[in-house]
Write a structure and sequence with these properties.
- The chain has 424 residues and is of the alpha+beta class.
- It has two domains: 44-142, Rieske Iron-sulfur Protein, CATH 2.102.10.10; 159-400, Naphthalene 1,2-dioxygenase Alpha Subunit, Chain A, domain 1, CATH 3.90.380.10.
- It has helices at 7-12, 23-26, 28-38, 159-170, 192-199, 205-208, 230-252, 356-381, 397-411, 414-417, and strands at residues 4-6, 44-48, 57-63, 66-72, 78-82, 96-99, 103-104, 111-112, 118-120, 139-143, 146-150, 178-188, 260-262, 269-274, 305-310, 314-318, 322-332, 335-345, 421-423.
- The strands form five sheets. A seven-stranded antiparallel sheet has the order 12-18-17-16-15-14-13, with helices on both faces.
- Strand 8 (111-112) and strand 9 (118-120) form a beta hairpin.
- The longest helix is centred in the C-terminal third of the chain and has 26 residues, at 356-381.
- The chain is globular, with a radius of gyration of 22 Å.
- The structure holds FE2/S2 (inorganic) cluster and fe (ii) ion.
- FE2/S2 (inorganic) cluster is lined by residues 85, 87-88, 90, 105, 107-108, 110.
C-alpha cells in the first residue's frame, strides 16, 4: 500500500517561500478540491461585456464540471445561469458564443426566457408548475466591463472593494465600447497553479520572451534583482526614473496609476500602470499603438500599460489603443485552458485601423513560450526527485503571494479539505 497523507497535513506543513509539494500539482483529489474550494467559492474571471453586447448574446463557459451561461437580457442586464435544463439536466448551449431569442433545450424543447424563467414545457400535465422550474442563477458581476462569476451561494462580498478600487483605473479605457478583435484558446500541459505562478514573475522573461521584453520592462512585475551587471544596472535605473516621472504625469492627467496590492484579500488583486519601453505606447513589437482608434476618454498614445491581476485566475493589460485579457480555467490536474482576448475600439476597422498580426503577435508568442515553461515545470513536479524549491526573494515575491493566498483559501475551507487524502 502506498503511504497517504491528508491535505490538511500538506497545508499545515507548507513552507512559506517555497514552491508547493508535488500533490498540489499532480493529484486528482487536490484538483477536485481546487474546483470546490477555489473555483467553486471565489469570483472567477470569465470574459468581457463586449462578447454579450446585444440582448440574446450568450457566452457559455465551463468551470470544472460546472457550465455557466452568461447573457444579456432584454433589459440590457447581464445575467448568468447554470447551463443545466431543469427537465433532465441537458446542456442548453454548447461552450462558446451564441445568440438566442429564448433558451431552448435541444432535448425536449423546454424553453426559458432570458431572465431564466421557464416559459414553455410541452406534455407535462395540468399539475406541472413552470414557476418552480426556472434556470438556477449564478452570481455575476461586471467590473468595468470585465465579467466575473461566482458559483457559491454566498459569494465573497469584497468584490465591492475590488470594484471600487479598480474601476477608476480602467474606466478611462472604456472597455464596454470595445470589441473583441481576436480570441485565442491555448491548452497548457500543466496544473492551473503553475500557469498562475508563471504569470506572477518575470524572473524568466529575459531568457524566454524575446518579443515581450521589447515593450515590457521586467522590473514592473515583481522583479528587483539584487545583483546586476553594469548594463542592467543602467537599464534598471532608467526604469526607476521613468516610472516615477510617468506615474506623476499620468496621475496629473487624471489617470490613476499608483500600485495597489491587495493580493491577500479573499478576492485578491493588484494593479499598477507601468511604463512601456521604446515609444511607450503599447505592448507591440515596435512599442507603437497597434490600433489607430484610441480608447475611451484617453487623449494620447503614450500611456504605458495598466496591469491588473486577480486571484485566482486572471490578468489584464490596458493600453491606450487596445486591451489584452487572460482567463485561466482548470481542465484536469495537468491541463489548463488559457483564454486570451484582444480588444480594440468598437469602431476600429481591421485592415484600416489595425492589423491583426501586429495586434496579437507579442502575446501569442509569449503565451506559447509560457505554455512550454508550464509544461516542463509540470513534468518536473511529477518526477520522483521533485521537492519544493526556494523562491527568489528578489524576483518571485508575487509567486509566493499567490501560493500563500491559495493555501490560506484552502485553509478557510477546512470542512472540504478534511476528508481528502493523497499519495505521499
Ligand atoms: S432535458 Fe431539457 S427539455 Fe428535456
Ligand atoms: Fe512568461
Amino acid at each position: 500500500m502506498p503511504e497517504s497523507v491528508s491535505v490538511d497535513a500538506l497545508i499545515a506543513r507548507r513552507k512559506p517561500g517555497c514552491s508547493l509539494e508535488a500533490p498540489f500539482y499532480t493529484s486528482q483529489a487536490i484538483f477536485d478540491l481546487d474546483l470546490t474550494a477555489i473555483f467553486g467559492r471565489h469570483w472567477i474571471y470569465v470574459g468581457v461585456e463586449p462578447e454579450i453586447a446585444e440582448p440574446g448574446d450568450c457566452v457559455t463557459v465551463d468551470i470544472g464540471r460546472a457550465s455557466v451561461i452568461i447573457l444579456r437580457d432584454d433589459d440590457m442586464q447581464v445575467r448568468a445561469f447554470h447551463n443545466v435544463c431543469r427537465h433532465r439536466g441537458a446542456r442548453l448551449t454548447p461552450a462558446g458564443a451564441s445568440t438566442v431569442g429564448n433558451l431552448v433545450c435541444p432535448y425536449h424543447q423546454w424553453t426559458y426566457g432570458l431572465d431564466g424563467r421557464l416559459l414553455f414545457a410541452e406534455h407535462m400535465g395540468r399539475e406541472f408548475d413552470t414557476s418552480c422550474h426556472g434556470l438556477k442563477p449564478v452570481h455575476v458581476r461586471s467590473v468595468g466591463g470585465l465579467l466575473f462569476v461566482c458559483l457559491a451561494k454566498e459569494p465573497p462580498s469584497d468584490i465591492d472593494a475590488l470594484a471600487a478600487a479598480i474601476e477608476p483605473y480602467i474606466a478611462p479605457h472604456d472597455l464596454r465600447n470595445c470589441k473583441v478583435a481576436h480570441s485565442e484558446d491555448l491548452i497548457e500541459l500543466g496544473n492551473w497553479k503553475l500557469t498562475m505562478e508563471n504569470n506572477r514573475e518575470c524572473y524568466h522573461c529575459v531568457g524566454n520572451h524575446p518579443e515581450l521584453t521589447v515593450p515590457l520592462f521586467e522590473y514592473g512585475f515583481g522583479f528587483s534583482p539584487d545583483s546586476l551587471d553594469d548594463n542592467r544596472r543602467v537599464h534598471a535605473e532608467r526604469y526607476d526614473a521613468l516610472l516615477a516621472e510617468s506615474c506623476q504625469r499620468w496621475e496629473g492627467m487624471g489617470l490613476p496609476s499608483r500600485e495597489i496590492d491587495r493580493l491577500t484579500d479573499v478576492t485578491g488583486f493588484r494593479t499598477q500602470r507601468l511604463p512601456i519601453d521604446g515609444s511607450g505606447e503599447s505592448q507591440t513589437k515596435d512599442t507603437r499603438v497597434a490600433s489607430r482608434k484610441i480608447l475611451g476618454s484617453l487623449s494620447e498614445c503614450s500611456l504605458g500599460g495598466l496591469s491588473f491581476w486577480t486571484q485566482p485566475n486572471s490578468w489584464h493589460h490596458f493600453m491606450s489603443d487596445h486591451i489584452v485579457t487572460f482567463s485561466v480555467l482548470p481542465l484536469s490536474p495537468d491541463r489548463t485552458l488559457l483564454r486570451t482576448r484582444w480588444l480594440v475600439h468598437k469602431d476600429a476597422v481591421e485592415g484600416v485601423d489595425y492589423d491583426l498580426k501586429t495586434l496579437t503577435e507579442v502575446w501569442n508568442a509569449t503565451n506559447r513560450q509560457d505554455g512550454d515553461l508550464v509544461a516542463i515545470a509540470q513534468a518536473g513536479a511529477a518526477s520522483p526527485a521533485y521537492e519544493p524549491g526556494p523562491y527568489s526573494p528578489h524576483t518571485e515575491g508575487l509567486v509566493e503571494k499567490f501560493c500563500a493566498w491559495y493555501i490560506d483559501r484552502l485553509s478557510a475551507h477546512r470542512g472540504v479539505t478534511a476528508a481528502v487524502e493523497v499519495a505521499a
